[in-house]
Design a protein that fits this description.
By secondary structure, the protein is an all-alpha fold. It has nine helices and no strands.
Length: 198
């Protein structure tokens, strides 16, 4: 009889990198967008108030998906849910990158928010489950450090891009990061059972 070999658990540092990479870049994209609003409004010949919907739409979608994260994880399984979230976030980045109008840009940011919302609670859940009990504090410290550093660097990063290149580069950076994140999560994040009765 052929016995199935249990899947080896990846090292916790690799799990941490796999989940914190997309979470950190979603925070970076959010704070970088804030400084690019004047450039984006000028590009689309819109007022600053109209362009602020780019931020508002992301925040609304983000908040709604944070509340649904636990239910969706139970429904889809952890790995599938994470991969779907990253694909949605990357799709939103592509739409923002090629948006021909402000309305399409707002839709792209809404889609980004749908994909980015679950990353914060899911990354905390995965880190807490991967680290041993005596290192739970280290896990949360890593999460806080990664997200805060990238959020703080966002305005400088966004300012550099809009001054030296164009605001579209804020979103093009997310595409290779999204692809890399999908590969890392597929390899290093263990799945949970699906609950079809949810």
């Amino acid at each position: 009889m052929i016995q199935s070999v249990p899947k080896k658990t990846p090292p916790i540092w690799l799990i941490a990198i796999s989940i914190l990479l997309p979470t950190s870049f979603s925070a970076l994209a959010t704070s970088a967008t804030n400084v690019a609003i004047p450039h984006i409004s000028g590009y689309f010949a819109a007022t600053i108030d109209e362009a602020k919907w780019i931020i508002t739409s992301y925040m609304i979608a983000n908040a709604c998906l944070i509340m649904l994260s636990g239910w969706l994880e139970n429904l889809l399984g952890r790995k599938t849910f994470l991969k779907v979230s990253i694909m949605i976030f990357t799709l939103g980045s592509i739409i923002c990158l090629i948006a021909p109008s402000l309305n399409i840009m707002v839709i792209g940011r809404l889609i980004q928010g749908i994909g980015g919302g679950p990353m914060t609670p899911m990354s905390q859940t995965i880190l807490l489950s991967a680290f041993p009990p005596e290192k739970k504090g280290v896990a949360m410290s890593l999460f806080g450090l990664a997200v805060m550093v990238f959020a703080i660097l966002g305005p400088s990063f966004g300012g550099f891009l809009v001054d030296n290149l164009s605001w579209q580069y804020i979103y093009s950076v997310n595409i290779p990061v999204g692809i890399l994140s999908l590969l890392l999560i597929n390899r290093n994040i263990l799945d949970t059972k699906h609950d079809n009765n949810v």
